[in-house]
Specification:
Layout (H helix, E strand, L loop, with lengths): L1 H6 L5 H7 L4 H19 L2 H8 L1 H17 L6 H18 L2 H12 L4 H33 L3 H20 L11 H14 L1 H31 L6 H24 L4 H21 L3 H29 L5 H22 L5 H26 L4 H6 L4 H4 L5 H4 L1 H9 L4 H17 L7
Helix pairs in contact: 3-6, 3-15, 4-5, 4-10, 4-15, 5-6, 5-7, 5-9, 8-12, 8-14, 8-21, 10-11, 10-15, 11-14, 11-15, 11-16, 12-14, 13-14, 13-16
Length: about 425
Amino acid sequence: MLTAADWLQGPYLYALYDSYGHSKQSIGHLFILGFGTAAVCSTFVGSLADKYGRKRLCQAYCLLMILSLMTKHSSSWGILAVGRVLGGAATSILFSSFESWMVHQHLQLSYPDHWMRRTFEVVVSGTGITAMTSGLVATFFTSHFGRVAPFDLAIALAALGLLLLSRAWPENYGDAGISVIQTLENSYHSIRGDPVIMLLGISQALYEAGMYTFVIMWTPALDSTSALPVSHGWVFSTFMLCIILGGTLYKQYLAYGGSVEKLMLFTCGIGAVSLAIPVVINEHSLLLLSFFVFETSVGVFWPSASSLRSMYFPEDTRASVMATLRVPQNILIMCVLSVIGRLENWMVFSIAFVFMTCAAVAQWYFIKITTGETDVIEELGIVDENITEGKPSAAAGSASKKAMLLNNSSSVAGADLELASMGGERLSTTSHTGA
């Protein structure tokens, strides 16, 4: 439900700002405010969730999202800017607290490890179906009730989602016994002191920076190359269908015992190649095809990234580590947005291509470390403080969990039946954690 509320905005947000008469540069500034706010809030929102409760932060997300959506009724740049600030604060919660809540509940209830991987698969597939449907619904509401109608529907869904999670979810915490400042310090040391966490975080942050650059650019790129009006809702829904396909490919790959780490490297490579197409080609059909390929890679990325975080990120500061790693990502996006009005579309896509390529390089180094080629630590000049202090690193700490996940990959079909009979009801309460 909260996923639907979020995705209803996707197809027509840029088009709404454009319909109000704002220039491409002014629209870019609005997005800068959103990502800038997310970057600032990410430095402490995860710590607040770990200390004061992840459920409370998820409730705050709903309230902030409702307020942000309400501002879409105004054409005033200032009011829209306030909405972007509220939306940015909400986004910083969306990409940390929901997943952290689900992982904690999974571990607390002692569910089998392969259920977690399966949960991420269900989340991606469910999110893709919801987003695809949301795109079609947004198109219908826009054509019959105006461009603001999808945002009003999103308000209703966010309010209903707030009510349901308030009644159904138990509260859980990270390390609630320490201060927010100490939690921030712990998350910083977790990232800085362990090259596994650092490289995994860099890889995912760079991929998402390229992805969000694409999110901003696909509408003007398609509009500028089409002689006819583009149905953004239908394109958006097709994107979501591609994400579902990517989630299915992820599931089938692991069913044959594949490595999530190597799959992530392949995904970054495919993302880089597909975003290189708009740099050299300006033909509408080929652009659309390359965008479909990229969205398929996104469908593989989401469950892969979630699985890797569940294996390598520390549980007691999971939300704060995830949120902290989003800071450089948001800074990169802000840098792109600051020049987006002065660059040609192909130049912006070339930046996204560089992000994807760097993500692949970081993931390659990550694989070298996790497969025992620890000389890469010296090669990069990184000191693993956990090793020097005699503590297990994230790679060592996740070894048993990873082994169990991979050992179960050959029994996916049996796990599906087990989920259907035993865990379906439980999964229904967590399927929107990727909202």
